Amino acid sequence: xxxxxxxxxxxxxxxxxxxxxxxxxxxxxxxxxxxxxxxxxxxxxxxxxxxxxxxxxxxxxxxxxxxxxxxxxxxxxxxxxxxxxxxxxxxxxxxxxxxxxxxxxxxxxxxxxxxxxxxxxxxxxxxxxxxxxxxxxxxxxxxxxxxxxxxxxxxxxxxxxxxxxxxxxxxxxxxxxxxxxxxxxxxxxxxxxxxxxxxxxxxxxxxxxxxxxxxxxxxxxxxxxxxxxxxxxxxxxxxxxxxxxxxxxxxxxxxxxxxxxxxxxxxxxxxxxxxxxxxxxxx
Length: 283
Hints:
Layout: H1 2-15, H2 33-46, H3 53-65, H4 72-99, H5 116-138, H6 146-149, H7 161-183, H8 197-203, H9 208-254, H10 261-281
């Protein structure tokens, strides 16, 4: 279902000039029926609608979170349950803002369904989103790896499984219903409203980009630039300069080897005079 929704998002972008701003969408269900149906199947699966593919994975995860002793099952279990409701809200917001409500298209927009090269894979994934979870569950997929890894240990959760399922579905219904009331039943403004401080923080990813840049990206960039400069000045130029120095010395010394006997005799004479001079100086 996740793969189907990714392809569905690409189909919407294809029909809306590659835009991803949902505030300029709305009412696309009337123009993109196949995309709407297949995306809807993925949406229902990902929020954990009963007996669709996502239900069989999400429900068991939440049930496992309620297993344990002391405070842990209550904290972990309730957290996963609330996250299920949050997931239902923001995925429903995505679905309703894109396909329902009033059209908020731009003048140059002409929404249209995608070609079969895009819709056929979406249909296949939509069928899997609806039925594959139940097929695998009924077909014994839970025990498929048991000969290799053994049977999983069974522990009873602190709440009855039926109660956990009911409370989770209630959270899902509240999240999806809230999204419907806010983004389908009401008119969605095309420009994003200023919102509360919490909304502004959420739009800024809770400041994580600022924190990452301040603590990691900028110091890392400065360190890299310093290391690159040190490598260029101290290593590259130092080694190159030493090589040039030795090359220059070699060329200078090589000029003394000119093949003339008189030059060698003069050099020897200079050496003898220098040695005698140093001998007299040290007396």
